[in-house]
Amino acid sequence: MLERCEPVELAFAEVLYLAGARIPHVYFPTGSFISLVTPMDGDSGLEVGLIGNEGMLGITLTLGVEVAPFQALVQGAGSALRIAVPLFLQELERSRPLQLELKRYLYVSMSQLAQTAACNRFHLVEARLARWLLMTHDRAHADTFHVTHIFLAYILGVRRVGITKAALSLQEQKLISYRRGDITILDRIGLEAAACGCYQTERETYERILGGEPKNLADAYKRRGLSHS
User: Fold this and answer.
1) pLDDT tens sequence across 35-75
2) Which residue from 159, 141, 140 is spatially nearest to 150, judged by alpha carbons?
3) Residues in a beta bridge with 25
4) Can you tell me whether residue 18 is helix, strand or coil?
5) Which residues of 119-157 are buried (b: 16+ CB within 10 A; e: fewer)?
6) Which of 74, 96, 195, 224 could cross-link with 10 by S-S, CB 3.0 to 4.6 Å?
C-alpha cells in the first residue's frame, strides 16, 4: 500500500474534507496533524478528534461509508501520505492484517470521540486547553507549534476571552509560553497535572488497543526505501 501512496505537503488551515462530502483520498499524516471538526451554527465548530502519525484520515471507509462525517482541517502543517480511495479499498480488501489494524484504530477513534464529548461537557476550559496542548504536543513531535487564540476558541467551542484567560494561567504557572501565535511547552509534567483525566484515559486506550506508543508510519515509509521528496 505504501508504494501506491504519494507524498504530499499539507498547509496550515487547509480543508481536506467537508462534512457530508464524498471522501476523495485517504491521508496518513507523517509530519503533520489534522483536526476533525463538527460544524455548529453559523461559522462555529467544535473539534472532536485529532489525527497524527498514529492514524489515518478516512477511517469510515473501513465501514463501507465514503462520506466524511466531519470537516478535516490541517492543524499542523507538514508531510503526509495520500492514496486515492479506489486504490485504498483494493488494498484493504486484499490485506487481512490491514483490516485488523484499522479496526483497532477505528475503536480508538470512537473512544476519543466519546471522551472529547464528555470532556467538553464537564471540564473547565483551562483543563481542556491543557489536554488539547498535550494531544497536539504528542502529534507535533516538537515543543513549539503554531496556533492562535481565535482558532483555539473555535475548536474548543468557547469564547476567545475564555481561551485567553486559560492560556494566561498556564503561562503564569510556567507550563507554556505564548508569543505571536507560537505556543511552546515548557513543563510537560506540569501540563499533564493541569489537564483533566481525559488525556491519561486516551493515552491508556492507545497503549492498550494499539500497543504502546502511537505507531509512526513515516518510519515504515523510510524502511521501504521510499523518499519524501
Assistant:
1) 999 887 666 678 899 999 989 999 999 999 999 999 999 99
2) 159
3) 84
4) coil
5) bbeebebbbbbbbbbbbbbbbbeeeebebbbebbbbbbb
6) 74
DSSP code at position 175: S
Q: What pLDDT is stored for residue 226 in this prediction? A: 44
Residue-level pLDDT at 81:
97
Give residue for cell 481561551: 163
Tell me the torsion sign for CA atoms 165, 171, 176, 182: positive
Task: In whole angstroms, give the CA distance from residue 131 to residue 198.
Answer: 7
Distances from the Cα of 36 to the Cα of 94, 112, 129, 213, angstroms: 28, 11, 16, 21
pLDDT of residue 40: 75
Residue-wise pLDDT tens digits, 144-170: 988 888 888 887 888 889 999 999 999
What is the spatial distance between Cα 177 and Cα 187, in angstroms, rounded to a whole number? 10
- Which residues of the chain are modeled with pLDDT < 70? 41-44, 212-229
Q: What is the pLDDT of residue 103?
A: 94
Nearest 10 degrees: CA dihedral of 76, 110, 206, 62?
-80
**Beta-bridge partner residues of 39:** 45
CB atoms within 10 A of CB 194: 22
Q: If we measure between CA atoms, which residue out of 125, 139, 118 comes closest to residue 203? A: 139
Residue 208 CA to residue 195 CA, distance in Å, equals: 21
The rounded distance, in Å, linking the Cα atoms of 156 and 68 is: 21
